[in-house]
Specification:
The protein has helices at 3-27, 31-61, 68-88. It is mainly α and 95 residues long. The protein has 2 domains: 3-61; 67-95.
Length: 95
Amino acid sequence: MTVINKLNQTLEMLKSSESNCRTFSMDTDDQNAKQMFNQIADTIKQAEDMLQNRINYVMSEEPQYQPQAQQNQAKQQQNLQALQNDVEKDEIPEL
């Protein structure tokens, strides 16, 4: 299992846990329990947000996680830069 798969799996588990806590809060009549479950859900939501930020970072930094179009664009940019370097060195390859 790849790192990104593990991160996504963990994010889904956190979302499920948050949802369960919100449900527990709605299902109880005890005000202290409601408050406790809502606080736990809020804390889990903060963890979700932090993990989502990490997932976004990993996906933006690792080429294998980028959509194919972005990979192609990055490759074209590299090829263009290499060609510009060759032109600057007056080493244009024969076609």
